[in-house]
Structure formats: C-alpha cells, structure tokens
Amino acid sequence: MRKELNQGLIDYLKASPTPFHACASLARQLEAAGYQRLDEREAWSTYPRGRYYITRNDSSIIAVQLGRHSPLETGLRLVGAHTDSPCLRVKPQPELQRQGFWQLGVEVYGGALLAPWFDRDLSLAGRVTFRHGGKVESQLIDFKQPIAIIPNLAIHLNRSANEGWNINAQSELPPILAQIAGDERADFRALLAEQLRREHDINADVVLDFELCFYDTQPAALIGLNGDFIAGARLDNLLSCYAGLQALLSTGEEENCVLVCTDHEEVGSSSACGADGPFLDQVLHRLLPEGDDFVRIMQKSLLVSADNAHGVHPNYADRHDDNHGPKLNAGPVIKINSNQRYATNSETAGFFRHLCFDVEVPVQSFVTRSDMGCGSTIGPITSSQLGVRTVDIGLPTFAMHSIRELAGSQDLSHLVKVLTAFYSSPELP
Fold first, then answer.
1. Is 148:173 a contact under the CB 8 Å cutoff?
2. For the chain, which domains are there?
3. Among the four residues 42, 50, 357, 370, which has the most C-beta atoms within 10 Å?
4. CB neighbour class for 258 (10 Å; exposed up to 12, middle 13-18, buried from 19)
C-alpha cells in the first residue's frame, strides 16, 4: 500500500503544477469513483444520499458524501487542505527585453523561499482566458517542457552571496525564455495562443488574460539510500489534498464525509474560493437542513485541518522547542498554539490521538518555540466560519515553501490510514 500511495502522490504532483490543475486532477478521480458534479449556477434538488463534488474558480473543490446515517444524528466528518503553493506568477504585461534576452516579469505569490528558484529548469502552467468564435472561454495550459531559467550570478561577481543575500524580487527574478535578435519584439500573448493550438487545438481570436505560474520541471521522487524520503514541489499542501482524497475514496457509505481543498491559503484565504470566503458555508447550506438543524449538525461535526508541519531539521534543531520537534517518518503531527494560530483544543487533539492509537499509527505534537512567531492555516478560519470543532494536523516536512520540499516516505500511508479511520468513525466526541 505504501509504495502505491507514494507513486500516486508523485503522479498527482506531476499532474498538478498549479491549483487549477490540482483541482482538475481531483475532479477526475472523484468522477471515476462515481461522484456527481454539481454546478453552483444551477438549482440543486434535495439530496438525502449520494456523492457529489463542486468546484469554484477551477482552483477550489469540495467533495461530499451524504451517507446512510442522518447528519442530524452523527454530524459531518470534514477534512480540509489547500491547493495553492508559493510560486512565481507572471505579470499581466510581462515582456522584458534586456541585453538581447526575452524575460518575463513575475511577482512572488505567497511566502516563497526565493534562492532555490535559481538555476532550475522551469516550465509554465495555469489558466488562459481568450475569445473564440465571439465567445469568452478559458482553458488550462501546461507547457511541460523546460522553457525558462533564472541563472545565478557567478560568485566572482557576487562575493558576498554566501554571507547572506537579499534577493530583489523585481530585478533579480525575471526568468529568461530566449534570445532575441535585432528589432524582433517579444509577444507573450502570441506564445499563449500558439500553446492553445498545440495543446488543445484551439485557434483563439485573441488571448484576453491569464493566471500563470512558473514551476520546476524536475519530477518528485523517492530519494535516500533506503528510499526514506519524498522530494518534490508543492508537497505543501498537495500532499494533504491527495491523502484526504485517498481516505475519502476508501470510506464506506455509512457516514457523512466532506473533503474541502481551497485556494489562496498562502496569501490569507480571503477570496470567493478561499477558506475565509463563503464557499464551504454556501455549499453545506444548500445540501443540509437549514436553521436550527444546521447548527445542530455543525455542533456534532469535526474538521481535521491537514497542512504540513515543520519537521526538526538535523542542521537547525535549535529552531524547535526541545520537546516538540516532529520527526520525518514518525507519523502525523498535532499542531497546537495557545494564541489560536491553530484551532486544536484538548478535546479534538485527544480524539485524533485516540484514532491514531486505534489504527496503530504513530502520532506527534508540535508547538513552536515561545520566542518565535507561529504560522497558521485554514483550521482557525474554517472553525470560526462554521463554528465546527477542529484539530490542526499535518505531516512533518523540510524546506517548506521551497521550490523542492522533503517529506518522509512512510508518513503518507500513516496519514491516509488515520484519515480513513476518521471518515469511517461511527462516533465523534
């Protein structure tokens, strides 16, 4: 099982260079498992039982199983994650021509580690909006091949590079795409129109706009002498999206289960399709009873917010609290913060720990050092939106927000196992 899950994650990461592609990949797997797509723009009937999924902005997705038991009796089992990762996004008018090179202007999305972006084989993917036959349409594209690079400056010209380097995102990050001779002018929209023809056989009248991200073409892989690790881009947080999906698809039809994977977590979640927006609340209100019954259902429900945790790095162990340094391949981590950066409380933590004990999955705890700031995730946001009890958890990783992150190869199966037990649990606290 571990080998198949790890390979499935590697395949999913390759198919998901952007949140749009990550969402489309999840939708394909849900449809293959019998989930029915619901369109938010259409009227919905009352669905006493069944399996459904809903997308918004092509980058957020909610899958819902309404099981045999009434949600008024047993509540909902929710797992939440996010589809976005820090990256370099192309600006609206990106063409730069300097010293005979064609470059693209980019802005940094989220809290990216910038240094690892240099000297990587980069490709480009995302969503393009265009006019075709008099109508406005959108399509996902993925160049797949390495088409760009951000070369480092030689150490001879930057002697202090190894002493700490303040990277200027405006001037030092534009990737190089090609050399241009003479008076030739770069036309990025023409390049996108050609990609639409090549990839989708679409002859666009004009490219109107786009949301595109550069990404590293090096595929994720099992690495280490004994294959102990998974290295790859976007482990934060596509690893949790994939684990949640596998658990959902392994669950029987008795319980009421929800998987919600939303965009824009890395920039605060405040959007129509983010966790701090109305997406999940609106979907649940359309599928569940209203008024007093809805509140009762929420109070009988539980959310597992799954987002990666900081594993204790052997070269930087002092960055962790001595008693709370999660180790790779030692199981999922319960994340706790007294200032509510995580939504975990003793009851929800205790229940998750109980599930881990029951299915013989190792479990760890994380509290950030008291003299350091603490990040957050969708847990507190969703909890405050719905009033649902929440536990924040995640798998330990290294190099979070780098272009290539590292996780333990045993931990994915641990997480899928305990999330499957959660979805199948007949009773919540």
1. no
2. 2-85+233-424 (3.40.630.10), 87-216 (2.30.250.10)
3. 50
4. buried
414 is in an annotated binding site: no
pLDDT in tens, 104-162: 999 999 999 999 999 999 999 999 999 999 999 999 999 999 999 999 999 999 988 89
Backbone phi, then psi, for 354, in 5-degree steps? -60, -45
User: How many other C-beta atoms are found inside a 10 Å radius of the C-beta of residue 133?
Assistant: 9
Q: What confidence tens digit (pLDDT) does each residue in 86-116 have?
A: 999 999 999 999 999 999 999 999 999 999 9
CA distance 193 to 135: 15
* Residue in the structure block whose two tokens are 């319980």: 255
Whole-angstrom distance, CA of residue 109 vs CA of residue 350:
36
CA distance 405 to 427: 36
Both structure tokens of 266: 């890395």
- In whole angstroms, what is the distance from residue 15 CA to residue 25 CA? 7
Give the whole-angstrom CA distance, residue 43 versus residue 178.
49
C-beta atoms surrounding 170 within 10 Å: 10
**pLDDT, tens digit (0-9, with 9 covering 90-100), for 242-276:** 999 999 999 988 899 999 999 999 999 999 999 99
Nearest to 236 by CA among 124, 135, 377: 377
320 assigned to a ligand binding site: no
Q: Please answer whether residues 144 and 232 qualify as being in contact, where contact means their C-beta atoms are separated by less than 8 angstroms.
A: no
pTM of the model: 0.96
pLDDT category, 47, cuts 50, 70, 90? low
Residue 67 is classified by DSSP as -
Ligand-binding annotation for 82, yes or no, is yes
DSSP code string of 381-419:
HHHHHH--EEEEEE-EEESTTSSSEEEETTHHHHHHHHH
Name 205's Cβ contacts closer than 8 Å, sequence gap at least 6: 130, 131, 132, 133, 134
In sequence order, the β-bridge partners of residue 392 are 305
Beta-sheet pairing, 389-394 with 333-335: antiparallel
Give the DSSP H/E element, type plus range, for residue 222: strand 221-223
Beta carbons of 308 and 230 less than 8 angstroms apart: no
Of 82, 108, 52, nearest to 284 (Cα)? 52
Does residue 237 have a cis peptide bond before it, meaning omega lies within 30 degrees of 0?
yes
Phi, then psi, of 423 in degrees rounded to 5: -60, -30
